[in-house]
From TrEMBL:
Organism: Streptomyces mutomycini
Lineage: superkingdom: Bacteria
InterPro entries: BXL, Fn3-like, GH, Glyco_hydro_3_C, Glyco_hydro_3_C_sf, Glyco_hydro_3_N, Glyco_hydro_3_N_sf, Ig-like_fold
Pfam families: Fn3-like, Glyco_hydro_3, Glyco_hydro_3_C
UniProt feature, compositional bias: Polar residues: 1-11
Protein name, per record: Glycoside hydrolase family 3 N-terminal domain-containing protein
Amino acid sequence: MAIQPAPQTRQADPPPAVDGPWRDPSLDPEARVADLAARMTLEEKAAQLYGIWVGADAEGDGVAPHQNDMVDPVDFEDITTRGLGQLTRPFGTAPVDPGVGAVSLATAQARIVEAGRFGIPALAHEECLAGFTAWGATAYPVPLAWGAAWDPELVAEMAHRIGSDMRSVGVHQGLAPVLDVVRDLRWGRVEETIGEDPYLVATIGTAYVRGLESSGIVATLKHFAGYSASAGARNLSPVRAGVREMADVILPPFEMAVREGGPRSVMHSYAEIDGVPAAADPALLTGLLRDTWGFEGTVVADYFGIGFLETLHKVAADRGDAARLALTAGVDIELPTVRSYGDELVAAVREGLVAEELVDRALRRVLLQKCELGLLDPDGPALPSVLKGVDPEQARGTVDLDPPLNRALARLLAERSCVLLANPEGALPLSGTGRIAVVGPRADDPLAMLGCYSFPSHVGVLHPEAPTGIEVPTVMEALREEFPGTGIDYAQGCDVDGTDAAGIKGAASLAAGADVCVAVLGDRAGLFGRGTSGEGCDAADLALPGLQGQLLDALLETGTPVVLVLVTGRTYALGGRADRLAGCVQAFFPGEEGAAALAGVLSGRVNPSGRLPLGVPDGPGGQPWTYLQPPLGRVNGVSNLDPTPLYPFGHGLSYTSFAWEGDADVPAELSTDGETDLAVTIRNTGERDGAEVVQLYVHDPVAQTTRPEARLIGYARVPLAAGESRRVSFRFHPDLVSFTGAGGRRIVEPGDLELRFATSSDVADVRHTVRLRLTGPERTVDHRRRMVCAPSLDSLVAQS
């Protein structure tokens, strides 16, 4: 029901003077912003609270949900006379040479400065989920691959490089990282997540935030909150998570990132949680995020999320009502373009439907951020100095967003993210002799390496006339380079998700005549049903897409050893086939250097050290399931369905071997507010260098609410030369085992614990157990609790 207007309507005041103390960079930012806000008309205030999307197409295939329905025409020259808050995706909307794009962005900023009374540039934002989503920019591995690498420092380095490239062309804000925790593998956006465990997601995601912010780019946490817990794994489906699932699984990554990472922006989720859309939830966006956690940055709308309050959620009567709900909840900026926060908001304020104090609250946050970025300073630089005075066409080819340093970093991350799932007979590494049959729809397609937010997959596919902009070798090409003296033949076999089986027989015949077959299967990243993985590409089950399972069966029936290489955005069921494979390697859209990384793993040039950030299902059903299950969520005698994964969270093999020795010097008891060190010594007992991933889990045998069988609380990637040993210690604090108790408070409960050092979440993979009794009173803890179990590695004398 629409809110009725107040009896008295507010009339527009004459424009105040422009000049004042706000122009003085030496003054306190709060004083500058207060002075500037007082000089703005209501229209000018509102203009700082939205972006515009120049070049967004309302026809054809979009890159945002309901783009065709929600994009209204915008007159750039007219709308910028009021000023402008943000510019949406100046590089990520269409293929544009980076140098030309930088000059064009600077030109647009100059027009904005000239058009508005105050001469304030817009803040330019871009996607950066798997690298800067721009033509010609490095396509890094997707976030699920970051999780598979278990290497926060490397992810932070990548994020810094991404941010530096963005800043070099005039971008201010990046829409990443995604901190959603996987709850159902069928969800299309699994590839955008870091994994199924909140601690892994939190630590890797926080590292990305630190890296991006260290480059000067505003990091944006998304999607806050609950998005990944959608019912039935359908994109934008309602979320029915309970308070404990929210508190103990969904929220901790955001909590850690806000506290430890220093992000300056948060994006609200599309989700509705128990009937309340996140964009209209003041308890979430103000009460928890700001009042409890102390976040001081800006909250931006997910694209069209404010409009969806009216069109999809049906909780707003019209655009002005949607503005009221979102502003009240705490959404400061409408993205990607103006719909509710423009004339509709101004009218609603004047009619008494929206309090101007809400506009002022959001305006203060926006202007403080612009002040911090130097956008309020007189004669602030709008263009990178290297491009000043350059004609757009003269700038073509002058900016390199994919230099050798980036590619080397992309390859290292890709190599560390490859997971060796199985190698039962030691078929890997390949000998490089005889004939190799390379088969499968992902073997000779460069887009097989890229996720749905990499520019070539996200935007480039809509512009087939444009070149890719970066070199992306295929697995086929990389194998031929890796094995130059080996005969290598290729057959596609079938499409990724097609129904034509005509090529399967020929592919099997090719495999039958080879010494080994490398089957390269997996996903095609896309958007809104245009792929098998990606936003809006949810899966009905976890069988390999299309006829790829049929193709794999035909290859296995030939008797030729088959090494399966999976290049996917999620994990797929391998039960019934895994025990017939000679080997299996899993990669998650490993980026532009992913093929070289995979070829290196297959040849043995790279010793795999990746570990699964989510389990591999046995059967295609049994979902939703993650390893964070209480007893009744696991295999038991009261259901005929066994959800146990074929390969558990944390699993991964190596070409070398490791021995573990536990540290016996641990107290039997520890107070609920005490600390102690837990340690193991890892020795590389093989003949080649490698890296082990030490994982620390907690098992709580008896608690006042049901608890998972095991939950990750710490980890360390431990590189070891052949014969070398290292002692890995963790500083354990009981805050790390806190959970939401029966009373709804987060508590540390006294009682017995098992702290398990393991190679995966499976109890069969536990290498050392520490039994510890927590003593003393039950403690209530909050967001200020100890959240990180930081490891330290001590080098020991190498052993023969």
